[in-house]
Amino acid sequence: MTSPSRLELPAYHLFIRPANLRELKRDIWFDDPVPAKLMMNNKTYDIGIAFRGNHIREFEKKSYLFTFLKPSAYQKNQELHLNAEFMDSSLIRSKLSFDFFQEIGVHSPQTKHIVLKINGKNAGIYLEIESVDRLFFQKRNIPVKAIYYAENSNADFCLFSTYDKSFKLDVLAGYERKYGDIEDDQYLRAFIFKINTLSNEDFPTEIKKYLDVDQFFRWYAGVVCIQNFDAFHQNYALVLNAETNLFEIIPWDNEATWGRDCHGAIMEYDFVPITGDQTNLLAVRLLEHGLFRKQYRELLEKILAEKFTESYLTPRIDSLKTMLQNDLRKDPYISYSLEQFEKEIDLIRQFIRNRRTYIQNHLIDLKS
Predict the structure, then answer these.
(1) Vertex 180, ends 194 and 197: CA angle to 5°?
(2) Of the candidates 117, 119, 144, which has an alpha carbon nearest to the alpha carbon of residue 132?
(3) Crossing angle of helices 213-226/93-103, nearest 10°?
(4) Is residue 262's pLDDT more than 50?
């Protein structure tokens, strides 16, 4: 087994009054933040702190949303997400996913692992995730008109509910607008209505008036490669580009990837077909057309040749493993051994081999 690295992760120090900490823990589903102070890089910031996520709030090791009370104080950031990665015993699936999306040309949050200390006590390894907000796009010189978070499985671009097949009372029920106005809501409704009602003949031309198709397929190909099943109908950001007036998708929530599901169970490498999950009506309609299938297939072929390979990803995986293993020993919520940690890393490598072969063998399914 590889000897542990002496490298240590950067430490974030959270200071919160006992009364505020009790208030935070009193109701894990309450979203209003409580006041605290956060020290990073020898600087202290006033923040609000709340738990984040859905089912992950019930885990012993909590994930957090930090809100800066004076955003200009820390790189103009308004929010900071800290993920516990509690169900991922490799601790790298999310970061590996976000980095992979960047490598294949998808704008994706910056991430880094840190150690969180709460009132001087080690709270373990966390993944810091950049918030998808106005600043996210300002940093990248991308003009943005509206930002929506796809919060639940109703964000599937369909007029019908996936639960009971009835008409949705509001097709935006699966989305939360983080930035923009009511006019943008109407534009998104029109987009979803077009997806559901355009004839097969009109669809290819009309859909390109609303969607950046190349960007969508880059995101979709990434989701198919890493097999993020939930991302087909939730856990992404939908963005309206102010310059092109086209919708784009930004990846979000990538823990259930690289061979594991959201509960930490094995997800076999062939669970998701090369065409993705049929709950995403936008992808279903796009892939009904030969030119779009060809565009998607050629993009997948390029990714399989250049990025989604064991030789390309292994150095990145090994670097993350080396960086984490020293602080892994000190995380109070981790009970598994370094040997188990390395076995989980090996499982990711095996998934890449098997998944890549599976996708290559099914490229023929995308031919007209």
Answers:
(1) 5
(2) 144
(3) 150
(4) yes
0.85 exceeded by the pTM? yes
Secondary structure (DSSP) of 250-317: EE----S-TTB-TTS-B--TTSS-TT--TT-HHHHHHTTSHHHHHHHHHHHHHHHHHTSSHHHHHHHH
Pairing of strands 111-118, 175-179: unpaired
Distance separating alpha carbons of residues 176 and 16, to the nearest angstrom: 29
Place of tokens 């950049």: 130
Between CA 133 and CA 151 the distance in angstroms is: 15
Q: Find, among 65, 69, 72, 70, the residue nearest to 31 by Cα.
A: 65
DSSP H stretches of helix in 104-249? 134-139, 182-197, 203-207, 213-226
Q: Mean pLDDT, to the nearest integer, of 333-362?
A: 97
Whether residue 34 contacts residue 49, with contact meaning beta carbons closer than 8 Å, is answered with yes
Contact 286/215 with Cβ under 8 angstroms?
no
Domain boundaries, the chain: 134-308+354-366
- Alpha-carbon Rg for the chain in angstroms: 21
Q: How many CA atoms lie within 13 A of 23 on its CB side?
A: 14
Which two tokens mark 255?
């823990």
